[in-house]
Structure formats: C-alpha cells, structure tokens
Amino acid sequence: MIHEVDEGLRQLLAESGLEASGVEVVFDAPTRDWAARRSAPTVCVFLYDVREDHTRRASGGGEVYDADGFLAARRAPARWFELTYLVTAWASRPQDEHRLLSQVLACLVSTDSLPPRLLTGSLAELGLIVGMDGGGTGLDAPAASDVWSALGGELKPSLGLRVRAPLAGATTAVAPPVTEGLAVRSGQRTGPPGPDERETPEALRRLRYVEVAEPGREGFGGTRERAQAPARRRRGERQP
What we know:
240 residues, alpha+beta, STM4215-like, 2 domains, 3-stranded antiparallel β-sheet, Pvc16 N-terminal domain-containing protein
C-alpha cells in the first residue's frame, strides 16, 4: 500500500508541471550525504512516520465474486493508516527552492484526496478515498526539527503532508457453489470398496428436488422441475 501511495503522489506532482520543467521527484531520505550528491533541481518527498488510525477500524467484511458472479472469497475489513511525509525542494539557489516549494504547495492544497485515476494495485481495487492533508502533519507525528536532527542535516523550509490510506484485509477463499444433488449409494457392502471397484449408474443415484422454482432461480445442476399444478374443477363437477 505504501509504494502505491508513493506512486500516486509522484504522478500528482509530475502533472503539476514539475516533470515538464525537468524537476525530479524522489522519495529518498534527505541526509547530508544525499544533499552533497544532488546536482539537479529535486523535490524530495520523504516518508518518516506511519501510524494506524484506530478510530476508523471496522468490524464488517467484504465479499469477492468471480467472473460468473459466484462468491469466491471473503475479505477482512481494511485498516487505515496515516502516512506522514516531509516535502522539501532542492536547487542551486534559495529563490529557486522557494519557487519549487510554492509550486508543490499549490498542487497539494488544491485537492483533498488522490484522484482515483492515479490509484494503482490494492488502492484501485478497494475503490476507497485516499485522503490528503497538505497543510500540516499528524498530531502525534514527530516535529520537522526532530526529523532533521535525526537525519543529521541542516534545517530547511519544508511542507508537512499527511495521507490517510487503507490497507486491504486478508482474503479467505470459500468453497465453490453446490451444482449437484446429494448422492445416495444403494446395495449391500461388507467392507470398503477395493481399488479396482468403480461406481456404476445402478449403484449411484442422485436425489432430485421436484418443486416449483421461482422465476430466474436455478436448483442443483440446472433449472428445477416445476411441479404439475392440479387441474381446476368446474362448478358443479364432482370429484372422482
């Protein structure tokens, strides 16, 4: 799920004009060594905190159907996580960095969720809204100054970005639908069948359910047989 959020953010920032202007979007940790190797204008989107949102836990589940419309699996409810990013701009001059950061800020605050067309993998399959908050960080997330201290770099202007994304629950396969009736074996047997013995039509008989079927519904092995409705007697006619 995390790499799918990264890809959605990369495409979102690329469409804002960064890709056309030759600015690279990376997800590296902006350490002192990394900054020394940087040579081109870059926007760094560094993920530094991942926490579950316990308030959004659900108890229900979902169902997965195959191409024929039959139930194929049951899925546990998704669990929601908050991903906190530190967004920085890197260029040769502070003015250029501020211009890039302003362009990124305008892109992030213009939408409150990742567009569905940018979602891939499990995020696209779930079809849930991946929310974004480009104006700050989570309440419990570490402060930007603490992050810079841990990275061993100098404090730079940065944006806090928080993404709320679902993690798909485990999927459990279910048994295939019943397509045949109950099999009944007739005859006497004193012991288990031998390896060379085979079931014959005379020894194996399937129960068939004869009843009136509802329109559009099928029974075991196909459409159920309709029971013959009794003929209506005319007025005054005696019953035989």
